[in-house]
Design brief:
This is Cupin. There is one protein chain. By secondary structure, the chain is mainly β. It has one domain: Jelly Rolls (Sandwich). The protein has no helices and nine strands. The protein starts with 11 loop residues before the first strand and ends in a 19-residue tail after the last strand.
């Protein structure tokens, strides 16, 4: 067995898109160009507004925060909820108290074929 880390201290600060108090810990890249990472959004943290370079699934695993799509309407999210953005879709995420999310990015992602949709719309 090998042990690995993906906690906030193992991550790299996100400084693009006017982001604040956010880090990303890379987890892996598959041969099919799917990337997986873990984003840590600290208190009063924001991953700034930017277009998705490919389909992106944002899976909240800890804490509470918000996500928005192109309409910039903030939707509250917490553990067990996910947001999905398509290629080119502008989006942003943040938290007042801290939030951790697993990010899966890559062509061909189709979360609707596996996960039930939320009662509230999570992307714009």
């Amino acid at each position: 067995m090998q042990l690995f880390r993906f906690d906030q201290l193992a991550g790299k600060s996100i400084d693009r898109f006017e982001s604040v108090n956010s880090t990303i810990s890379r987890v892996m890249r598959t041969p099919g160009s799917v990337q997986i990472g873990c984003i840590h959004v600290g208190e009063a943290g924001v991953v700034g507004y930017h277009p998705a370079v490919c389909p992106q699934l944002f899976l909240v695993v800890n804490g509470k925060g918000w996500v928005c799509g192109e309409d910039r309407k903030r939707i509250a999210v917490g553990p067990g909820q996910a947001a999905f953005w398509i290629t080119g879709e502008g989006h942003e995420s943040g938290s007042e108290t801290g939030m951790t999310a697993i990010i899966i990015e890559g062509e061909g992602l189709d979360p609707a074929s596996f996960m039930p949709q939320s009662d509230s719309e999570l992307s714009g």
